[in-house]
Each structure stands twice: as structure tokens, then as C-alpha cells.
Write a structure and sequence with these properties.
Blueprint: E1 6-8, E2 11-13, H1 18-24, E3 32-37, E4 40-45, H2 54-59, H3 69-76
Antiparallel strand pairs: 1-2, 3-4
Length: 84
């Protein structure tokens, strides 16, 4: 796929076709890392921390799984102070 370098204000830039962005799973606003390797311009998405939604995490839980022994002991422990 061929593109041209364009003027963007006092900078230069290229338009990245949607097909390539889809292959990279990248979109507007995503951070990219740019390097030159063996005379080639290489641009890769910056890997960021994944963002989780509570519903997605809860969907992975097994409601029938037994509670860990440590938590069972904690839940059954006698109150020491003015806990409710």
C-alpha cells in the first residue's frame, strides 16, 4: 500500500488506511511507537494496561467453585472489637 508524506501545519504526516489500522487493532488517539530499523520506518501500537469491565470479570467467575479455606476461616472468625 502506498501513501505520500503530507504537510500538516509545521509538521509532516501520512494517512494510515483503515484496513491497516484494523489489522493493528488501532484507532484514533491510540499511542504508537515509531522507530527506524534497517532503513525502514516501523510504527507499532504501544501496549497499554488492559482495561477491564466488572461485568466481564464476573462473567469469568464460577459460582459453583468452593470458597478458599482461608476466606472461610476469616468469615467464621469471632469479632474482636466493635465490628458489625
Amino acid at each position: 500500500m502506498e501513501t505520500s508524506i503530507r504537510n500538516i501545519g509545521n509538521s509532516k504526516g501520512v494517512v494510515i488506511p483503515k484496513k491497516l489500522l484494523d489489522e493493528l487493532n488501532a484507532d484514533t488517539g491510540d499511542k504508537m511507537n515509531m522507530t527506524v530499523e534497517d532503513g525502514k520506518f516501523v510504527m507499532c501500537p504501544v501496549k497499554s494496561k488492559p482495561r477491564y469491565k466488572l461485568a466481564d470479570l464476573l462473567a469469568q467467575c464460577d459460582d459453583s467453585a468452593p470458597m478458599p479455606e482461608e476466606l472461610t476461616e476469616w468469615n467464621n472468625a469471632q469479632s474482636v472489637g466493635k465490628e458489625i
